[in-house]
Amino acid sequence: MAAHIIQWNLRGLQANREDLTLLLSSVKPTVVALQETNIGNNHNINFRNYSFYNCPGTENNGIYHGGSALVVDKATYSHNSQNQPAGHCRPSYCF
Predict the structure, then answer these.
(1) Distance (Å, rounded) from C-alpha 95 to C-alpha 76?
(2) 23 pLDDT higher than 90
(3) What is the pTM of this model?
(4) What is the topology classification, in CATH, of domain 5-93?
C-alpha cells in the first residue's frame, strides 16, 4: 500500500482547521506535514482517525508564531519519539 503524504503551510491551524478536517475526510492521506501552525503545546488537537504530533511555535506576548505538526492516519504505526532535547520535536512514523 502506497503512502499518501501531503505538505501544507497553513499559516494558522485554528484559522484552517475546518479545511484540514475536510481534507482528511475526503482525501484520506496517510500523513499531513503542517508548517506555520501558530499554536502552543497546550492545545488539545484531535482529528477523527488521525494522531496529531505537535512541535509548538515560539511564543511572543501570548501569540504563537511558527510551529509544525504531523497528522498521521491511525491505521499507520506512529509514536512520539522520547528523550529529545528541549525544543526538538521529532515525531517518528513508519509505513
Answers:
(1) 6
(2) yes
(3) 0.82
(4) Deoxyribonuclease I; Chain A (3.60.10)
